[in-house]
Structure formats: C-alpha cells, structure tokens
Amino acid sequence: MKKKLTTVAFTETKEQADKLDALIAKYKNVGGNLMPVLQGAQDIYGYLPLEVQKKIAIGLDVSVSEVYGVASFYSQFSFNPKGKVSIAVCLGTACYVKGSGKLHEKCMEITGIGAGDISPDGRFSYDATRCIGACGLAPVMTVNGDVYGRITPADVDGIIAKYL
Amino acid sequence: MFTIEQLNAIRAEYAPKVEMRHGHGHFVDAGDGIRKNVLICGGTGCTSSGSMDIRDALVTELKLAGIEDEIKVVTTGCFGLCALGPIMIVYPEGTFYSKVTADDMHEIVTEHLVGGEPVRHLLYKETVKGDEILALDQTPFYAKQKRVALRNCGVIDPECINEYIAVDGYQALAKVLTEMTPDSVIQTILDSGIRGRGGAGFPTGKKWTFAKDQPAGKKYVVCNADEGDPGAFMDRSVLEGDPHAVLEAMAIAGFAIGADEGYIYVRAEYPIAVHRLEIAIKQAEEIGVLGENIFGTGFNFKVTLRLGAGAFVCGEETALLTSIEGNRGEPRPRPPFPAVKGLFGKPTIINNVETLANIAQIILKGADWFASMGTERSKGTKVFALGGKIENTGLVEIPMGTTLREVVEEIGGGVPNGKHFKAAQTGGPSGGCIPAHLIDTPIDYDNLTAIGSMMGSGGLIVMDEDTCMVDIAKFFLEFTVDESCGKCVPCRVGTMRLLEILEKITSGNGTLADIDKLEELSKYISSASLCALGQTAPNPVLSTLRYFRDEYIAHVTDKTCPAHVCKELMRYQIDATKCKGCTACARKCPVGAITGGIRQPHTIDAEKCIKCGVCISTCKFDAIVKA
C-alpha cells in the first residue's frame, strides 16, 4: 500500500527532540540500527514525519532516501499521526472469513476516510490491519488499543460512540 | 558462575510448586501453605477479552475472603481453546471455567475456593457429564492432542524462569554442554527426523550440519518469529507461554554449529510476546543460562531481540536477515544459502519458533521418542491454529498423520450453525485449500503438498458453503500484491495481473479465456519469482481452480456467485409468499429501492439496489433472499 504523506504540520516538544537525540546516540554504532531507531522514533512522536526522518539520517550518517526507503517499506511505520479515535479492523484470514470485510466498509463509511488516513479535523484515523492474532475472537476491531471481538457491522456505531 | 547443581536446586525447590498443575487431580504439598493454584490465561486472545481485569478481581476477592495465602494465582500462556476465553483453571482438581467475567469471581471464590464446590454453571460444558465433572483430557478438544511444543503453555508462569526450570527447563542445555559434542547434538536432531515448522519443511538437522561445516569463526543462530500467515498464531502462543524453551533451544543450536550469538526477529504486532521475551532474556542473563561461560563450560551465548515492522516478506529467511541488518526487507538470491553466507555475511541458521520449541524435548527424551510420533517422513507433532467457520477456534497440537476430519469434526467440534464443511485452507497466502472429499487425508508435509496445499506454518481456516472460493483466492492475491516487496518483476507485476483477472471475474466481466490465463500466468510467476513469496503466490488460485473450477465457471458464464458473496453478482429479491407487507424494509432502505403498499408484497428495484443488506437484517419474516 502506498503511503500518503501527512498534511498535518509538524511540531515537537523539547522533550521529544532530546529523546530522539538520546536514541540516535544509543544506536549510533550498532549494526543494523536503522529499524530500531525508526521504531523508537515512532514511539516518541507517534508517527514518522519527514522532519524526523531527516534528523535520523543526519544522526546516523546515512542518506535521507535510505531512511525514507526503509520507513516506507514497512507497514508499521506511519507517515500520518493517529487521530483522537484510532480505529483498526483486522483483515486477517480468520476475521475475513467471518465477515470483517463488512466491518471494514462500515468503518470507512462512519469515519469518511480510507485505510491509513486521518480525518482533516484529526478526530479519526483508520487502519485495516494484518492479523492481530486474536483469531479466536474473529471478527475483531480495535479502538485506541481496546479489542472488540465477535462483532457485526451493526455494533460498530455503538463502539465508536463510546470514544467520542 | 551458575552451576548445574544450582540449576538442580532450583528445580528441586520449584517442581513441587507446579506439580499439582499436571492434571493428575491430587494435591501436592510444597510446604508453602498453598492448597490450590488458579491459572488464568494471559495470552493475546484472553487478555483481549479482559482476563487481566478478571485476575485483579480474583486477587481482590481472595483478600476479602482472607485466603490469599492459600491460593496461588498464576498468569499463564495460551490454553488453546481461545473460542471460550477468558479461561481459568483451578488445580489440583483441574476445574475448567470458560467465558468467565470479573463479576463471576465472587461466586468462584466463595463457592469453590472457600466452599470446595465447583460453580457448575460456569464450567466448560464439555466437562460436565451428568453429575460428574470430567478432566480436560477427556474432552473431545483435548483428547486427541499431544502437546510437545505447547507442553508448558497454560501450565507455567512464562514470566518466571524458576517455573520453567521446575519443569526440566535448561536441563537439555546442561546435558548438551557437559555430556555431548556438537556432532552428537546434530546427529540426535537428524535422527529425530524433525523438519522445519515454519513452512517449507526442510530437515532441521541438515540445516544445522551445513552451518556447522563452515569454517570456525563468527556464526549466528536466528529465530524466525515473524509469523506473517494471517490466521496462524502458534508461534506467538509459544513465545507468550514458554519463551525460555526458545532461548534454550537457540543456545543448544549455537553450541551445535559453533555460534555465540543469536537474534530473535519477532513481529511488532505481538506486544505481549515481545514483553515476555524481554523478561525471559533478562532473567536468563541474570541467572547465567545465557551469557558468558555458561555452566562453567566456556560456552558463551547471547540473544538479541529485533522487532519486525509489518512486512510479510520478512518471514522469508533472506529477507528477514536483510531486515535485521536494518534495510528494506528484500530477499536475496540463494545460493549462497544463509548457512554459508547469512546475517552480516556470516554463516547463519534460521529456525522457526515452533521448531525450536521441540529441540530441548528431543535432547532430553531422545530422537527415538520423537521419531515414534508421526508418519514415515513427517515426525513429531504439529500445532495448528483452527479458525474460520469452526466451533472450537484455537490452538491444537496433534501428531502428524492425524486426519483433517479428526481435526475439524472431533477436535474442532465441526462447523457451527448447521452449515457444512466446504474446504479448509492451510498454508495461508502460500498454500491452498483441501476440499470436503479429501477430508480423510492424514495431515503431513508430503500429503498436503501432493493435494496442492502445503503445511505452511499451521494456519487452518475452515470454510462453509457461505464462503466463495473465487473471493478467497482474490483475498489472498490482494494480500500478496500488497506484500510483494517489488524487487522482482514476476512477483510485483505478475501478482497484480492475477488480481486484476480475479477482480474481472468476481465483478461479472470474466470470460472462459480468463480462467486459462490465470493458469498460464500462475505457472510463470511460480517458476520465475526470486523468493518463496512469489513462487507460492499463485497457489491459492491454482488450488481453488483445481477443486472449485465450477465456481469460477458459474461466475464467468452464469454471472452468479454460488455462495452469494460477490456483490456485483448478487441480486436481492423478496419472496412474495413470505412478505407480509410490513414496510419495515422499505423505510430502512437507504436508496429507496423497495416499493410496495401496506400488506402487499414488496419488490426491490435491482437498478437502484446497492446490496447493502440492511433490508435482510430488518426483515422479521426472512422474506428477503440473495439470488
């Protein structure tokens, strides 16, 4: 899936900047350091804006294109911040066979955005995820990390309403 | 320095503490005042449905009842029966509570843990037979299972190394380091006949031999815990329930091939598994079963954890190595094989989690014991993740050679809602389906390959008549198109073209020539792709074509979807004999496609209908049907 760059303006706190510096310093001389640094940076900022990717490139002394190449390759790295209500539907096989395709459509309808996007007001973000391993509860959706299992499209409105 | 004597002392101290959990039903006094153990599943499935809140409620209730010093509460890994989670077991009696809630804890504490009487209405119904309460291994779900890789999952506390040591943990490593040579270790693994559990089924002992035969110097052991097959979760369960078994096996492999360093590459989507691995590595280092000069033998081994970032192709071994090196996870051509030139250019073995979970048992119990299970060319047991349209979703471990019918009908409890078994899909996006007429096939590597599927990592998704096989093929192709790394053309472009043809067919625009094209293109993709992802990507198409060609033809010539799944080929109709003219559906229809007077049969305007299905769920008389 091609990643869309965010339209949200980048801001950072001093604390975030310090943490990123410390992270880069820690991994500077470790083999295969780019992935752990990107993962750590995403934990700090919640996503990987270009500004952060540039800082990492300078810090680890690699080109920005190399950082961008790795960051865009892996689906876990997000170029978009998460919305206040972050929704995800599992489209793993077990969930799909049990009808998660319909949950997927319903969530896009409710949020008005596609998978991997954030709504312009920052209220919703939506993702269609790979198997999250809760196959026994299929079909599954998560909202802000809370897991809801064995649900139907009719349940989706009520679940999301709890977070508004 | 940590010695074998110290290891044995810990075992002697802790073995009585876990002894009563082995299901024999009688109490074992460990001299610590504990009369019962309550085990709560802390796997991903059960924690998703709130098992940690339940544990907290239980602890509170135990304090209120004043028996917190008599009852030990243990958070374990997965028990396997995920469909019934959250799950709780009380030992020594082995009482199995299913679908418990925090509100049930008061009743369980007062009636059972204080009063001594199990709360019958909360018991797993298969364990209740008249007045009798059956042991778990007498229930259909567990009776045919044989737990080797999962032996400690749901038994010990995975965050406590002492409990692992209590069940003979790190004894195999001690034996290997003090009584065996690298050659004899590898010979044992070869003799056991174990083959890789990650998908391809390559003999593990051979892999180790190749790496051992490389000149001495830096070598690596890598554990592939990038379980990407959607619907397979056995590796996660092993890591969540028994992480030390993997660490111990990696150290054994390190001794065998002459490596002093290991990496575990685990999916970041598995936070609980990552957390427990971190704890396990830390504990193993603190105690000294990992690190320098293990058991005073001069053998060093350290393990580093690396997190994946959501790329299916990284389950392919060369892509995994490239990813650990910090790059885009693209595969590289083989040869050179990783055993010759692997991680950071050094000889490397890559073993799957489930494979490793068997190793310590093989060392302790012997190659003959392991080889006595299974079939001629597939030894031991295999864990399957049962999912889809099946009553007992969850994890099962069965001896190789068990038939699919036993797995689906006996262990799995059959297909729910009176529906029929249509096919089982194994091997995920690289595998294929097994149709109903082959349900008596004994499951092993070679049988599954012969019928056009594959063992894969062990996902087993059951499908009923409501599943469209063309739609399933399309589902897997969407997956591979999305996950193709883009390095080689046959995979990057070929899978995209395959998907386009499938979309054409499911939208009602396909022709018979398209079906031939699917087959021809599949051949080229299989033979020309660089890695296993591309080579196996056409399998879901080829296997559904092989067994369900009539469904493809129905889509193409009759423009119908027999399973009523493909939207474009579906029409909603109202059965005039059942319609009472209540107008409920007409009022709910978002596009005003339904017309008809009060108490008159309604009709649906096919031109306007968007097939959203609202009318079907609204109708109380089952008058609306898909055609």
Question: Which homologous superfamily in CATH is the superfamily of the largest domain in chain A?
Answer: Glutaredoxin
What is the CA-CA span between the terminal residues of chain B? 73 Å
Q: Give the neighbour order of strands across the main sheet of chain B.
A: 9-10-8-7-11
Order of secondary-structure elements of chain A: HHHHEHHEEEEH
Q: Count the DSSP helices of chain A.
A: 7
The CATH superfamily label of the largest domain in chain B reads NADH-ubiquinone oxidoreductase 51kDa subunit
Report on the architecture of this protein.
- Chain A has 164 residues and is an alpha+beta fold.
- Chain A folds into 2 domains: 14-73; 85-161, 3-Layer(aba) Sandwich (Glutaredoxin), CATH 3.40.30.
- Chain A has helices at residues 14-27, 34-45, 50-60, 64-73, 93-97, 100-111, 153-161, and strands spanning 85-90, 117-118, 124-129, 140-143, 146-149.
- A 5-stranded mixed beta sheet of chain A has the order 2-3-1-4-5, covered by helices on one side.
- In chain A, helix 3 (50-60) packs across helix 4.
- By secondary structure, chain B is α/β, with parallel strands linked by helices.
- Chain B has 5 domains: 9-143, Glutaredoxin (3-Layer(aba) Sandwich), CATH 3.40.30.10; 168-371, Rossmann fold, CATH 3.40.50; 381-464, Ubiquitin-like (UB roll); 469-558, Up-down Bundle (de novo design (two linked rop proteins)); 571-626, 2-Layer Sandwich (Alpha-Beta Plaits), CATH 3.30.70.20.
- Chain B contains 24 helices and 20 strands.
- A 5-stranded mixed beta sheet of chain B has the order 9-10-8-7-11. A 5-stranded mixed beta sheet of chain B has the order 13-12-16-14-15, sandwiched between helices.
- In chain B, helix 8 crosses helix 11, helix 10 packs across helix 11 and helix 18 (469-483) runs antiparallel to helix 19 (489-506).
- The N and C termini of chain B lie far apart (73 Å).
- The model of chain B has no long low-confidence stretch (mean pLDDT 94).
